[in-house]
Predict the structure.
Amino acid sequence: MTDLATEIENIKALQATLQARLDADQEVLQQLAKRLWAQQESEKAKLSRELHDGIGQLLTGLTRRLQALSTSSPELEALHGIAEMALNDVRQLSRLMSPTILDDLGLKPALNWLCRNLLSGEDIEYHTEITVPPDLPKDISTLLFRIAQETLVNAIKHSEATNLTLSISYHHHRARSYSDLR
């Protein structure tokens, strides 16, 4: 073998070593990202439970007490209305942070629920096309739910669309998400 051929072989071997190290480092980063994301979802679920069980219960007690007193005063009736709105906001926030419907019924019903909840007060007609297997892993379902949630929130905030189609499919370990705004 000539010196040039030997040098080329050495470079190829070094390249293969570097590629293997890059692949290993990429795998480590992916695992770290997954753990971080799982931790964030766990914290959201914990905060959601605390909102529901703590503030939600306090507001429920407050609204019931104000409702009982509201017949005697228009001011108390107004306060009852404000407390009801606060309670509804806390419930909605709790559900969006950790949607139990996702665990209970699966991704498709959870996404339909999400669209109804986020788009009901908007002047946007919507259609969903969700094709996912019923046994989709929890982490994939949660990730697709969060992608759809972000898509819908951005559509509400930044588009002036009157029609929205949310399409999500999962086939052969590949997810595809698409939204059409008009």
User: Anything to note?
Assistant: Strands lie at 125-131, 163-171, 174-181. The chain has a mean pLDDT of 93. The chain has five helices and three strands. The first strand starts at residue 125 and ends at 131.
